[in-house]
Prior knowledge:
Blueprint: H1 3-11, H2 18-26, H3 31-38, E1 49-52, H4 62-77, H5 81-86, E2 88-92, H6 98-111, E3 116-119, H7 125-134, E4 139-143, E5 152-159, H8 167-177, H9 191-196, E6 200-203, H10 205-216, H11 222-228, E7 233-237, H12 246-254, E8 258-261, H13 287-296, E9 300-304, E10 311-316, E11 322-325, H14 327-344, E12 352-357, H15 362-370, E13 374-378, H16 382-394, E14 399-405, E15 409-411, H17 421-437, H18 442-449, E16 451-457, E17 467-474, E18 497-505, E19 511-517, E20 525-526, H19 532-535, E21 541-545, E22 548-552, E23 554-555, E24 561-562, H20 568-571, E25 593-596, H21 600-603, E26 608-613
Parallel strand pairs: 2-3, 2-4, 3-6, 7-8, 7-9, 12-13, 12-14
Antiparallel strand pairs: 1-5, 4-5, 9-10, 10-11, 14-15, 16-17, 16-26, 17-18, 18-19, 19-20, 21-22, 22-25, 23-24
Amino acid sequence: MSYKQEYERWLHSDALSPAEHAELERIAGDEKEIENRFYGPLEFGTAGLRGTMKVGLHQMNIHVIRWATQGFANVIAAEGEEAKKKGVAICMDCRVNSMAFARAAAEVCAANGIHVRIFESLRPTPELSFAVRYYGCQAGINVTASHNPKEYNGYKVYWSDGAQLPPQHADAIAAQLEKIDIFTGIKRMDFDEAVKAGLIEIMGEETDRAFMENVMAMVNDRESMAKVADTFKVVYTPFHGCGWKLVPEALRGLGVKHLYCVEQQMVLDGNFPTVDSPNPENPEGFYLAIELADKVGADFILGTDPDSDRVGIMVRNHAGRFIAVTGNQTGVLLLDYLIGALRRAGKLPEKPVFLKSIVTTNMARKVAESNGVTCYDTFTGFKFMAEKKGELESAGQGEVIMSYEESYGYMLGDYVRDKDAVTASLLITEMAGWYAAQGMTLYDAEGNARTVTAYFDGAPDSTSGSMIEFLIAAGASAAGKTDADGNVIPPSPGDGLLMSGVLQFDASGRLTGMSAFTPTVEGSKNLADWQPAELEDGLPQLTLDGATMAVNFGVSAAGGWQNAPASAADVGTDQSKLPSMGADAVRAKDATTAYNSSSPTGAYKQDGYAEGVLSA
C-alpha cells in the first residue's frame, strides 16, 4: 500500500475521532507531510517505539500504541497461561498523552487475558523496572520519551528480569506486528470493566514504599552527612518530571537539611515550559537552578530528566561559577567513591565487578582495576549491562556494584535493571556530603580525579642545545616507578599513556620546538598546526611560549581528551603562574602540567616524574 493509500485509509476510518479526522484533513494537499506520516510504520526495536505525537502510521498516537501492545500481548501469550497470570506492569511519565497511552495499553492487555498492574499516576522509569521484578511480572510497558523534546512520546517494553527487551523478543514483536491490522486486528476491553473483572490492578503508594525501602538501603554513610548537614546545601530540579517526589524524599532520608527545589520546575508539565530541552546533559537547562543556588549559597546542583532515569550535576568552581560535570566524570567520581564507601562500611563484595559500555571512558576502568574491582565492557544499552550482570552473578563470577554509561545513566543495586536517577541522586549526594566532611567540594574531587603524570627523559644542555623525550600519562599511578637498580621507569601504554614526543632546545636552553604523537592517533603532527576542532577528537594540546611548555587537558563528554581553556600564553614567563610539581601539585586547581627550562627545579625533575592537574 502506498503512503497516499494509507493516508486515505486513515482519513476514512471509523476508528478515528472527529479531532483526528480534522487533523488529517488539515494536511490534505501537503504531499511531504502526508508522506512523512504514512510512508511506513514506526520500527519496533529493542528500545520499543519513539516518535512525534501526530495522527499517522509513522507517528506516536493511540492507534499505534494499541497496535504495538497487541503484538507484545501475542508474544506474552505465547509464553503460556502462567505468563499471562504473571502479567504486565505499566508506567507512564509526565508527557502529553502518556496516561491515555498507558491506559490504552492496559485495555489491550486485559482483553488478551493478561493481568495488568498499572500505576495510578506518573512514576520514575526505575520504579517500573522494580515493579516488574518485585511483583514477578512477565513483562513491563513504560510510556515515555525520556529527555526528548515535548513533541515526542515513546513506548518502552521490558521482560521478566526488569530490563528492556532483549533483541530476540523485540524481533518477535516486530514479526507479530507485520501480521496485525492496526484498526481491525486489535482486542480491546473497557478500562473500568477490566478493573471490575480483576484484570487491571492499580499500583500506588504501597509500591513506592517498597521501592524506596530498597533505595534507602543503598546508603553507605549517614555519619558524614550528619557532620555537614547544617551547612551542606543542595539545589534540585526534576525538569517538570517524575523525580519531583521520590528524589527529594531520598535526599531528605539521607539527612539533607537544606534541600532547595526549583519551584517553577517542580510543576508537572509535559510541555516543559521553562526549558527548550528537559535534558540534564544540556547545561543551559539549569539556569533556574543556578539562580536559586546563587541565592541560597549552594555549591551543588542535581537535575533529573522527565522520566527520572538520568541525572546530571553542576558544581561551583573556585571562581564562583557553576560548571557542568559530564556523565563520564560523574561516573568516575561515583565509582571511586562507591568502592571506598563500600569498603569502609564493610559491604564491598568478595568479587566486586564494575560494568561500563564500550563508549564510556577508560578512566573508569583504571579506577576500578586499581582498586581490585574487575571491569567488563558491554554494548551500549542497559539491557546489555543487565544481561551481563545476570550472567556473571548467576555463574558466581562476581557481584556488580555499579554500571554506567557516559550518557548520564547509572544502574545500582539489585532491585532495578535499568538506569536509575533516584538511587544515583541519593548516592551522588552522599558522595558530595562525604567530600564536604573532608573539606572538599565535588569540584575539588573532580580535579583530583584528573591527575596527570609527566615524564621527562634528560635535561636541556645549556651549551650545545639538545632534545628531550617526554611522555604524558593519565593518572598518578604511573609515577615513581623504578627498577631494581633505582633507575626511573617511563610510563607505558598500560599506565594510561596519552602522548609522547620530543622537545627541541637551542644552545641557550630555550625551548624552540616540539613534536608529538598520541598512541591512539596514527602518525605525528607539528603541534603548532593543531587547531581547536582537531583537539576535540581526543588530542591533548601542547603550547609553546619561549621558556615554557604547557600541557593542557580537559575531559570531554565523550570520554576523550580535548583542549582546555588554559594555555602557555596564560603562563608566559611569569614563574609565579607555573604550578609546582611537588607533592602538593595534585591539590593545585586549574593548573597546567608545565616544563620550564629556566627553572627546572620547580616544574621539572630530571630523568623523572612530575605531577600536575588536568585543567578544568
